[in-house]
Every structure is written in structure tokens, then in C-alpha cells.
Amino acid sequence: MAQNTSKEPLPPWGNALAGAAGALLANAVVYPLDIIKTRLQIQVKRKPTDSEPLTTNEVHYTSSLDALRKIVEDEGVMGLYSGFNGSLIGVASTNFAYFYWYSVVRTIYLSSQVIPKPPGTATELSLGAAAGAVAQVFTIPVSVVTTRQQTQIKGDKKGLIDTGREVINTEDGWSGLWRGLKASLVLVVNPAITYGAYQRLREVLFPGRLSLKPWEAFALGAMSKALATIATQPLIVAKVGLQSKPPPARQGKPFRSFVEVMSYIVEHEGPLALFKGIAPQVTKGIIVQGLLMMTKERMELLFVLLFAYWRKIRYERLQKLADLAATRAKQNMPVIVK
């Protein structure tokens, strides 16, 4: 029964719920890595001649482990969870929107073909990019607020609402909640590469399989995310720079574009600095994507079974009504439907 019904695709909201649930679990597990990579990405390396920090944080971090140690020493273990609530809201909304629109545009594409067949690599990337762009427009304000929370120094911690007000009260006004939107729209190539690579690897390595084992989904998710992260790391660093407070060296002047952020980083630290924080970024991405796809595969299977059960109950009820109607008709009795 389950094998036959699993051939029926989930509705877009079913895929969206499965993706959001997987993303929530995965990001909750590795959230401290998100804090570490954000702190590393916003700081500017200090030079021997510098008399004051060139970072938005008082403390300067030399590595991921150094950042972990200093954050715990200065802010306690809870410092590794700054902006946690806002981040989970952002993760859930972004992934729900992404998987929803990805399912919609993919269904539209397949239905437009005379003979439905899996889209090619270029088409898969385009569909993913289109879905990611729509999702970003609606969810980037939460990302901006969360990034601000993650980079707040000790003694200046604010909640989600207060941080949002702080962003709005800047010279950008309400538009400040959409800072980094252009970079985010460019960065839709990241999930596009991730899910495009995932679909392609799945078709090549596991052709015809309706569902994957947990370890198979984890491995495919990890490989696809690693490829996407390495390819887009400079843009990720630039986006974080746009959404956080500007370095003290800029005297409060915010960056206006991700190109300006990248130019500033290259000028002060060199080209390799565009890849700063890549170790925790890739580690986080591999774990998150692996857990996300593993959980999503299980959730999709669960939803398929639930939908099949619901259809079975509905069919049996309709069948009983039909049998009752036939019996009543033979007896010339009115049919009462409750």
C-alpha cells in the first residue's frame, strides 16, 4: 500500500513542511557554529600598527576554536546562542518558503512538458534560483535582525523586537530590514547549486529510488552543500558584512553593496580574507544540509503515509455511503447523509 501511494507526489505545502522541519532540527543542533562563523566573518584582521580593534566586537578571534573559547569565557555558554529564537524563525520561514516555491515551479515546469521527464542540470539550477529569490524577498528581514543579534557585544544584548527597532532607527529606516537583499538574491545560487547537485547526484547514484536511507540522504546533502559553500563563500562573507554594524574604522558609515564590502576586505586583508570563516561555514553547512535532507526524506515519507491513510479512510467512508445509497434505492427509502 505504502509503496504504491509513495509514487504520488506531496503537495507543495507538504514538501515545505518537511523541509522546514528538517531545517529547524539541523540548525538547532549546530547553532553555535553559526555564531562562530558570523563573528569570524565580520571582523577585520588587526595589523601590528593598529592601536584599536578593527572589528565590531571588542574581542579579536584568531581561529574557530579561539572564538569558541573566548565567547564562552566572556558571555557564558548562552553566548553561543545569541539570536537563537530569531534564527530558528528565519530558518523555518526561509526553508518553508523555499521548498514551497521550489515544489510549485518544478511542478509547473513538469506539467508544461508533453512527456514529463526530470529537468536537466541547468534547468534544475534555474528552478532552484527562482524559488530561492522569491523566498529571500519575504524572509530577509529576519536574517538581518538575527545577524545583528549574533554580533552584539557583551552588555549590549537586545531581544528580537528591540534589535529590529534598532535596525529601523538607522538612516536606512524600514529599508534597513532588507539590507543585503541584492547579495541574498545573488546568493540564491547557493541553494540552487545545493539542491540541483543533490537531485543530480541522487539520479546518478540511486536511479529509480523512491526514498533514500538516512545515511544516503545525509551523504548526498553534505556533498552538495560543501560544493555550493566553497563556490559562494566570498558572497556569504559580503552579505554578513552588509547586515552587521560597520567596522569602527569606517566611523559608522555602512556598506552600500556587497561589492563595496568585498573591496574593503581585499584592501585591508587581502583576497584570501574573502574565505574567512570557511571552516565553520563548511562544517556547519555539511552537518545542517546532511541532517536537513535526512530529516526531510523521513518527513516526506511520513507525510505520504499519512496522506495515504487519510485517502483510505475517506475512500472507505464514501464507499459506505455509496453502498447505503444503493440499499436505500432498492428499498425506495430516502438516503440520509450525516
From TrEMBL:
It comes from the Eukaryota. Solcar repeats lie at residues 14-108, 119-204, 212-302. One of its GO terms (molecular function) is ADP transmembrane transporter activity. GO terms for cellular component: mitochondrial inner membrane. The keyword Cell membrane does not apply. Keywords: Membrane, Mitochondrion, Mitochondrion inner membrane, Repeat, Transmembrane, Transmembrane helix, Transport. It is a multi-pass membrane protein. PANTHER family: MITOCHONDRIAL THIAMINE PYROPHOSPHATE CARRIER 1-RELATED, PEROXISOMAL MEMBRANE PROTEIN PMP34-RELATED. Belongs to the mitochondrial carrier (TC 2.A.29) family. This is ADP/ATP carrier protein. The gene is ANT1.
